[in-house]
Amino acid sequence: QVQLVESGGGLVQPGGSLRLSCGASGRIFSILVMRWYRQAPGKQRELVAAITSGGTTNYADSVRGRFTISRDNAKNTMFLQMNSLKPEDTAVYYCNADLRTHNSDDPILKYWGQGTQVTVSS
């Protein structure tokens, strides 16, 4: 069984910063891609940022230049450094990973964390 657990959310004023973490545990052979999604009330879940095992990154236009995604492959951990936060960044942030559990011949499975709330408000 694989688990993804997010942490680091909270309440922050506009212009402030937060650092989210996502730790993956359990039976893991390799993690190919890790992503951060977010979902605001009444809106669809949207992709915020993604990072491959080789370190290639991709960002939504709305966060590019303000957010930085990174990962520690040895610890199966991913981070999201969020700077210059805006009220429109308020959402539940979810960790997502594409991974293989036993060996390189396994199918790629997708896992989700339970989410962490980020609220940007004065």
Task: Describe the overall structure.
β4 and β5 form a beta hairpin. It contains no helices and eleven strands. 29% of the residues are buried. The model has no long low-confidence stretch (mean pLDDT 97). The protein has 122 residues and is mostly beta strands. It has strands at 2-7, 10-12, 18-26, 30-39, 46-52, 57-59, 67-72, 77-82, 91-100, 109-112, 116-120.
In sequence order, what are the helices and strands, one letter per element? EEEEEEEEEEE
Terminal CA distance reads 40 Å
Share of helix, binned: under 10%
Biggest pleated-sheet summary: 7 strands, mixed
Total strands: 11
Q: Gyration radius, to the nearest Å?
A: 14 Å
Question: What overall geometry do the principal axes of the alpha carbons give?
Answer: elongated
In terms of structural class, how would the helical and strand content be classed? mainly beta
Low-confidence segments, given as residue ranges, are: none
The number of helical elements comes to 0
Mean pLDDT: 97
State which percent range the strand residues make up.
over 45%
Key terms for this structure?
122 residues; mainly beta; 7-stranded mixed β-sheet; 4-stranded antiparallel β-sheet; 11 strands; elongated
